[in-house]
């Protein structure tokens, strides 16, 4: 029997026939397109609803394109929608969220990078067990800590203040961010540190001039994670921010759950889209860096 006759029908010498691979690839594309449409459908409904007037919304065809697109609902959501007793729109909450976001991202990432760098040199016995406990602690439900933290913050005058809500986000962001930086720095060649020490660099100089330039991918991952976590937070903002610092998510909840007068679904959808613009922009602009950072060390250790 010749060698060619021993090849199974439908397969070539190097594997499955091209036709079979083509069918599998088409099936994969169909699945991916279907999954993308499934997850994009709510976003589509929100956008087109925000561009419709209330008479058109009352017809009930939520998937139909707007007959006369208008940004009036977006304007009202931004500047004049009622968020409780005030009718200043979600613009006040937007700037409150920005004031909360900037220090709540910079401070924990700076502390986590320095701490993770120091812990990457710690080879104490049982260190992996300690890090595992820290990781478990990072996933304990936040509601467990609310009452003790309210009492503690009230006793030192931080409850209901901007520094108080920033401190809360810093505390809860540090564990997972520290582990991410520690795992990344462990994966870097130790020869870089040894060479820098030979050149006379001290502990801080090695961190600033050697480690940080190499840590750009993981820093981007940390910024994305912390920024979206802080921006999307509702629980801590509602409890710790105080009436003068309520973030955008809390004001969005007040807009959507308002029971006075007509339920303006177009304004609700516009306010929701405005609230989601920053996280969407972060992911679209930094998605490539996010994947690179995860592959570069966020899951090593």
Describe the structure concisely.
By secondary structure, the chain is mostly helical.
**What is the annotated CATH architecture of the largest domain?**
Orthogonal Bundle
Low-confidence stretches: 297-301
Q: How many domains comprise the coordinates?
A: 2
Mean of residue pLDDT values:
83
How do the helices and strands follow one another from N- to C-terminus?
EEHHHHHHHHHHHHH
How do the strands of the widest beta sheet line up side by side? 1-2
Structure overview:
The chain has 301 residues and is mainly α. It folds into 2 domains: 70 residues, no CATH class; 221 residues, MetI-like fold. 70% of the residues lie in helices and 1% in strands. Strands 1-2 form a two-stranded antiparallel sheet. The longest helix is centred in the C-terminal third of the chain and has 34 residues. The termini are far apart. The C terminus is likely disordered.
Please specify the SSE layout and strand pairing.
Elements: E1 11-12, E2 15-16, H1 18-50, H2 54-58, H3 72-79, H4 91-119, H5 127-138, H6 143-155, H7 162-186, H8 190-198, H9 203-214, H10 216-232, H11 235-240, H12 248-256, H13 265-298
Antiparallel strand pairs: 1-2
Helix pairs in contact: 1-13, 3-13, 4-7, 4-10, 4-12, 5-7, 7-10, 10-13, 12-13
């Amino acid at each position: 029997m010749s060698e060619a006759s021993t090849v199974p029908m439908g397969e070539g010498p190097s594997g499955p026939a091209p036709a079979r691979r083509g069918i599998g690839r088409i099936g994969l594309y169909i699945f991916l397109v279907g999954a993308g449409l499934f997850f994009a459908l709510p976003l589509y409904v929100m956008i087109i609803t925000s561009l419709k007037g209330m008479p058109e919304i009352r017809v009930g065809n939520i998937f139909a394109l707007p007959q006369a697109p208008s940004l009036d609902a977006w304007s009202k959501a931004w500047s004049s929608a009622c968020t409780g007793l005030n009718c200043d729109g979600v613009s006040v909450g937007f700037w409150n969220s920005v004031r909360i976001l900037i220090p709540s991202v910079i401070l924990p990432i700076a502390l986590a990078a320095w701490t993770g760098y120091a812990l990457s040199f710690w080879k104490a016995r049982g260190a992996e067990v300690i890090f595992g406990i820290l990781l478990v602690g990072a996933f304990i439900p936040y509601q467990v800590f609310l009452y003790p933290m309210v009492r503690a913050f009230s006793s030192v005058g931080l409850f209901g203040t901007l520094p108080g809500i920033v401190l809360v986000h810093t505390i809860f962001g540090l564990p997972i961010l520290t582990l991410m930086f520690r795992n990344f720095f462990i994966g870097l060649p130790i020869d870089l540190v040894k060479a820098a020490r030979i050149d006379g660099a001290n502990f801080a100089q090695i961190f600033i001039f050697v480690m940080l330039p190499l840590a750009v991918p993981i820093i981007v991952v940390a910024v994305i994670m912390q920024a979206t976590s802080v921006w999307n937070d509702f629980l801590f903002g509602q409890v710790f921010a105080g009436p003068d610092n309520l973030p955008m998510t809390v004001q969005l909840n007040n807009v959507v759950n308002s029971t006075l007068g007509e339920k303006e679904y177009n304004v609700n959808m516009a306010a929701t889209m405005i609230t989601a613009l920053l996280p969407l922009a972060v992911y679209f602009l930094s998605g490539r860096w996010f994947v690179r950072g995860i592959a570069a060390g966020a899951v090593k250790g």
